[in-house]
């Protein structure tokens, strides 16, 4: 942390608005937001609650503001101040939120909630999710500090500065219309039973990966928005079927009488994914990843 970051932090506290603070500091709004996000990553806590009207200090933010006002003038070396802030701030009994970028394919509200509900992970209280359509978008979000980690179907080619760990997913299942010809099967053979069907793929990476092998099995592929209601309607209308991990299929089918899911065999792709985060992520992020690995092993 640099002294200029403390100045920026204090100014944002005074104005309560990123645009006004940036103008006072002769910065762009984007530059100030990025600098504050960097501070939060370095400290391992959220400093502000963000809403459409501006920002408000979290308990950790109020602590840092008091500390900056009282102590900053006594430290010529800001690194010493930073060390003092870290020591005291990590003693705050504050629950943190893990920000996760992922796709519908990984059913964030099931597979990751399983991990959160398994036990309390250190200071973690909650996880929030943002839909990421491509791996490139996810990596960009990590670099910009929008996410603490991303959960994706494929691993990045460029991994400098990032931790990348493989996780296992449950076996693939097929979402189908209940009264379809496949409805009486115990299992569905991907390489034989689905010939001539249209596969619905949510997310650009999923669509591109499926295209790579669809022709071999006589399948059509259709890219669809990552919208559960829309996918339900397409399956119910007979516009296609979807192959996804069991958690995803359960999430889409639950409470919706017209569709069902069956176990899928001979699926040509590995049912694995990757958890990716910066190597310098706070320890509580790695605590969360370790729990996710244990649940998904």
Topology (SSEs and partners):
Blueprint: H1 3-15, H2 18-24, H3 29-43, E1 48-51, E2 54-57, H4 59-71, H5 78-89, E3 96-102, H6 108-118, E4 124-131, H7 135-143, E5 149-152, E6 162-168, E7 172-177, E8 188-189, H8 190-193, E9 198-202, H9 204-214, E10 220-224, H10 228-236, E11 242-245, H11 246-253, E12 259-265, E13 272-278, H12 283-295
Parallel strand pairs: 3-4, 3-5, 8-12, 9-10
Antiparallel strand pairs: 1-2, 5-13, 6-13, 7-11, 7-12
Helix pairs in contact: 1-2, 2-3, 6-12
Description of the structure:
The structure is a single chain. With 297 residues, the chain is an alpha/beta fold. The protein folds into three domains: 3-89, Arc Repressor Mutant, subunit A, CATH 1.10.10; 96-169 and 272-295, D-Maltodextrin-Binding Protein, domain 2 (3-Layer(aba) Sandwich), CATH 3.40.190; 172-265, D-Maltodextrin-Binding Protein, domain 2. It is built from twelve helices and 13 strands. The strands form four sheets. A five-stranded mixed sheet has the order 4-3-5-13-6, sandwiched between helices. Strands 8-12-7-11 form a four-stranded mixed sheet, sandwiched between helices. The protein has a two-stranded antiparallel ribbon with strand order 1-2. Strand 1 and strand 2 form a beta hairpin. Helix 1 (3-15) crosses helix 2 (18-24), helix 2 crosses helix 3 (29-43) and helix 6 (108-118) crosses helix 12 (283-295). The longest helix is centred in the N-terminal third of the chain and has 15 residues, at 29-43. The relative contact order is 0.14.
């Amino acid at each position: 942390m640099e002294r200029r970051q403390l100045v920026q932090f204090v100014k944002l506290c005074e104005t309560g608005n990123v645009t006004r603070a940036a103008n006072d500091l002769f910065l762009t709004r984007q530059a100030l937001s990025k600098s504050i996000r960097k501070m939060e990553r370095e400290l391992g806590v959220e400093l502000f609650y963000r809403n459409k009207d501006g920002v408000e200090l979290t308990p950790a933010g109020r602590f840092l503001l008091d500390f900056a006002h009282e102590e900053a003038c006594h430290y010529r070396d800001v690194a010493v101040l930073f060390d003092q802030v870290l020591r005291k701030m990590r003693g705050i009994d504050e629950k943190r939120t893990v920000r996760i970028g992922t796709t519908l394919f990984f059913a964030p509200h099931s597979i990751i909630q399983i991990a959160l509900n398994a036990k309390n992970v250190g200071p973690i209280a909650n996880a929030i999710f943002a839909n990421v359509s491509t791996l490139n978008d996810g990596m960009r979000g990590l670099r910009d500090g929008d996410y603490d980690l991303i959960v994706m179907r494929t691993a990045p080619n460029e991994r400098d500065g990032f931790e990348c760990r493989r996780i296992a997913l449950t076996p693939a299942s097929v979402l189908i219309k209940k009264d379809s010809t496949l409805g009486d099967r115990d299992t569905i053979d991907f390489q034989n039973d689905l010939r001539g069907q249209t596969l619905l793929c949510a997310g650009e990476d999923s669509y591109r990966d499926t295209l790579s092998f669809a022709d071999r099995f006589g399948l059509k592929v259709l890219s669809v928005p990552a919208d559960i209601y829309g996918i339900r309607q397409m399956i119910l209308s007979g516009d296609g079927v979807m192959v996804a991990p069991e958690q995803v299929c359960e999430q889409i089918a639950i409470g919706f009488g017209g569709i069902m899911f069956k176990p899928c065999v001979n699926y040509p792709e590995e049912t694995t994914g990757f958890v990716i985060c910066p190597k310098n992520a706070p320890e509580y992020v790695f605590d969360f990843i370790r729990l996710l690995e244990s649940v998904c092993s």
